[in-house]
Structure prediction request, 297 residues.
Amino acid sequence: MSTPFSHFFNKINKITPQGAEYLQGLENIALMPKMLYFRGKIPENRVKTVAIVGSRHNTRYGEEVTYKLAYELAKTGVVVISGLAYGVDSIAHRAALDAGGVTIGVLGTPIDKIYPVRHTSLAREIIESGGAILSEYAPGAEVFPRTSFLERNRIISGLADAVVVTEAAERSGSLNTATHALDQGKDLFVVPGNITSLMSQGCNKLIKAGAMPLTGVEDVLDVLFPAVKKSKKQRRLIMGDTEEEAAILAKIAEGMDDGEDIIASLGIAASMFNQTITMLEIKGVVKSLGANRWMLV
Prediction:
């Protein structure tokens, strides 16, 4: 007989930050939680995770950008983490679920109290889809909302490899998450907004302060998966702009770095090689290692 799903939703588990590889990033944050309580499933091993946060009173622009980013990230297997709140948080969770991905909601309330109550069904979907609802507050714990919701932000950023702010007013609570991300040495991405929109003032100020502007999901993926970025770049470069460029680049990509060997292998004139390799160097595609040896940039 199968176990009713309500059992998994109502069952509360507890674990220390050292109890799973996925949680060990919390060991280095300020005020490390001694215990975490959760419903659902926490990944055992470290999985690339992106926090998406923003205003509770999002605009249509914020909704579209948040949904697109969360959906595309979840499609690549990235865990999307947020705070289960109204606005950007719930949009990010919903997009991850629609993409068939895993998402985690971090509460600022005790684990036995889903807040806001209207998101109880969303929490159930998150758990049913292999994600989790997480809190540092035990069942029945007494908390002070003015501080507990800010305190949970350090956990959201602490579990993430990168933090994305999609839309935020000047006094948005998501700026607190951004501050934690910077303190924790996490990559912080911010979606630029209309300079006349009050709901983008916080984002635009973060960018002015040095946060990385985000214009597409590739900006985040390139940081999360640098090896893939390098591979894509090399495949693009191997194409070259001429037949000779493509042939020379292909040989260098295969590991052949000596000019004389490349000339012999391709059966081309030394003058053609010299002319082509010089053009590739000017384009910034190859770099000289000296003694007629070359590498891809």
Remarks:
- Residues 255 and 295 are 8 Å apart (CA to CA).
- Residues 1-5 have pLDDT under 50 and may be disordered.
- The chain has two domains: 5-224, 227-296.
- The chain has twelve helices and eleven strands.
